[in-house]
Amino acid sequence: MSVAGKVKEFIESCPFLGEFEQMFPVVRMEMLDEAATAYSIESTPAEPILKRYANGDSVRQYVFSLCSRELYGESENEKTAEFYERFADWLDECTREGKLPELTGRLQSKSIRATTGGYLRDNQGTRCQYMIQCQFVYLKRR
Questions:
Q1: Which candidate, 27, 10, 9, places its Cα nearest to that of 18?
Q2: Which of 31, 41, 49, 51 is buried deepest, with most CB atoms within 10 A?
Q3: Contact call for residues 39 and 26 (beta carbons, < 8 A)
Q4: Pick from 93, 28, 16: which is nearest to 66 by CA?
Q5: pTM for this one?
Q6: How far apart are CA 111 and CA 18, in angstroms?
Q7: How far, CA to CA in Å, does 79 sit from each of 23, 37, 131?
Q8: Residue pLDDT, tens place only, 43-85
Q9: Closest CA to 67 of 47, 87, 46
């Protein structure tokens, strides 16, 4: 499975993702459904290699956004803001506790974190799209 696939699998394990809408939603790759509530992992263009070592090992990053389609309104927006704050805190907690995407072979997880707060990307009447940008760092051995 790809690094992106492992990150998606990891995000699906977020313990409160399902309670946001009282059901466990599907997290898609690069495809956000039109109906609320929907989630998608979208890759963000970024330099993949953060550091190269003389032995050929490298520290790499997968930069992505967790996007969601939500209902748009004052109380809904407040709940969405709370969700994204909790999500960022959860990523920090996972890094502190070493609970990271499970990589295999020559790959070793290092950290995962939110690099922005959750923010409104687009609204369309009663629905809107929120997103939070994130970074997953891992070691790739030669």
A1: 27
A2: 41
A3: yes
A4: 28
A5: 0.90
A6: 23
A7: 16, 12, 14
A8: 999 999 999 999 999 999 999 999 988 888 888 888 889 999 9
A9: 87
Pick the closest to residue 119 from 86, 80, 79 (CA basis): 80
The residues near 39 (Cβ < 8 Å, ≥ 6 apart) are: 11, 17, 25, 26, 27, 28, 32, 66, 67, 68
Other Cβ atoms closer than 10 A to 98: 9
CA pair distance 125, 127, nearest whole angstrom: 6
Token couple for 106: 């020559």
Residues in the chain: 142
